[in-house]
Amino acid sequence: IKGLAIHTASEAGSAPGPDYKFGFGLLNVEKAASVISASVANNNSASSEHLMFENVFSATTTTFWTNVIASGKGQLRATISWTDPRGNVETVNVLNDATPKLINDLDVRITTNNGAKIFRPWVLNPLSPSSDPSPGDNVLDNVEVVDVDSTIPGQSYTVTVSYKNSLQRGAQAYSLLVS
Fold first, then answer.
1. What is the pTM of this model?
2. For the chain, what percentages of helix, strand and coil (3-state, to nearest 5) are there?
3. Do residues 174 and 163 touch, judged by C-beta distance below 8 A?
4. Which residues of 68-87 are buried (b: 16+ CB within 10 A; e: fewer)?
5. Cα(67)–Cα(74) distance, rounded to whole angstroms?
6. What pLDDT, in 10s, does the model give residues 2-42?
7. Residue 53 · residue 40 · CB < 8 Å
8. Torsion of CA 89, 93, 98, 100, to 10 degrees
9. What is the 3-state secondary structure (H, E, C) of 9-57?
């Protein structure tokens, strides 16, 4: 539900992407319902406007990918979310501690069909909260969103989900939404 709410949020703020003031934007329940309806009705077919996957990584599955065709009706967006295992509890300097706490670092990327261009998720800089987000390698959050504004209608794109290092407890469930 968290991933769906973020995936379908309406932009708020002056710059695209998340920010520390508005998060990912305003909740858009109508858009969330249309994502659910389209992905379920079309059974995540390549021709569907929206896709929803619930998957689990294990020690033997390190990558998941799916191809999508740009519709030309708007930007291409992919969102992953997961419930990260509990990290170590700090008892010193707990107020606004910027030390990364992510245990299982999952990643989502979108690539052009020939692999020439890689689109990365939004990243915020906690040391500069007023700065606009930029695409990069998000190593802080258990939600990642990739936006591609310049899609070519009819062109194929590959959405890939993977993880770094090893998985605590040997497995990690996650959700992937693509529109």
1. 0.93
2. 10, 35, 55
3. no
4. bbbeeeeebbbbbbbebeee
5. 17
6. 999 999 999 998 889 999 999 999 999 999 999 999 888 88
7. no
8. -30
9. CECCCCCCCCECCCECCECCHHHHHHHHHHHHHCCCCCCCCCEEEEEEE
